[in-house]
Design brief:
6-stranded mixed beta sheet, 6 strands, single chain, 337 residues, Trna Endonuclease, Chain: A, domain 1, 3 domains
Length: 337
Amino acid sequence: MKDEPLIISKNYHELIDKIGKTLEDGRKQAFYAVNTILVKTYWGIGKQIVEFEQMGNVRAEYGSTMLVELSKDLKSRHGKGFSRSNLQYMRLLYLKYPKCQTLSGKLTWSHYVELLIIDDNLERSFYEKQCEKENWSIRELKRQINSALFHRIALSKDKEGVLELSKKGHILEKIEDAVKEPYILEFLSIPEDYRYSEKELEQKIIDNLQMFLLELGKGFTFVGRQFRITLGNKHFYVDLVFYHRILKCFVLIDLKIGKASHVDIGQMNMYLNYFKSEESSQEDNEPVGIILSAKKDEIEVKYALGGISNKLFVSKYKLYLPDKKELEDGLGGLLEK
């Protein structure tokens, strides 16, 4: 007697989805569990190395030599994973995080290797908190460190704000918290001396949308490009439109390859008024406008923005990584006050 054919129902498809979700969650938990054990194991090895050095009064100049010998012996007995540099990171892990309980169960050993390169405790703490909050991959973490995200955000705050930033990460409470100065667009790979058009800049951003969203920060979702606004018989186009799901508002971005002028600010103000009236729902907060320009005249911008009630910002963008030394010096002066 043949088995009767299974009648596929909606509930059956839901069963498949639930099993898939359970399997995915289990795999994630297994990954985090194994990773947590690995990080704590390396922390324990680092602790043993430091205690041996202290007990034996190992002089600093001999520390590196000792790690070389230790690396050889451990690799001979236990196989890979015990290079001199890896042992040095294990040692640093214990020195930077003397309490094992402060280690995050969400970060991998590779994350910690990148974090341990950072000497400044405030900066390292910030990137650690952001990694946890935004689930950065190793690649994303490297990019944010190289683009000096901490310094760019910290310089817009007071001393207490910087200390809070390092303890809790970047918390978005108002739209000003989400706007950077400058934006770093090095991932577009546009040479500094190349004469590009605004259309080319926009296309480059669309081609690298994932990286641009990373630079914008947490909460931004892409809505569209060249968003058409029709007033009477005239058509206007907003270069890029996003929606911020945390702050619950549209974010309009206009790109300028030169200096942002009072005309550009007036036009963006018109766009914001249109969105406020025609596109935003009752649940949305007021739309936000950001003019991204290669150059910025602070005085002209100040007077052009005077009296405007809409949330409108003019920020510079750079096509290359910032000078971290200058940013560090600026932040150092702020913290000394």
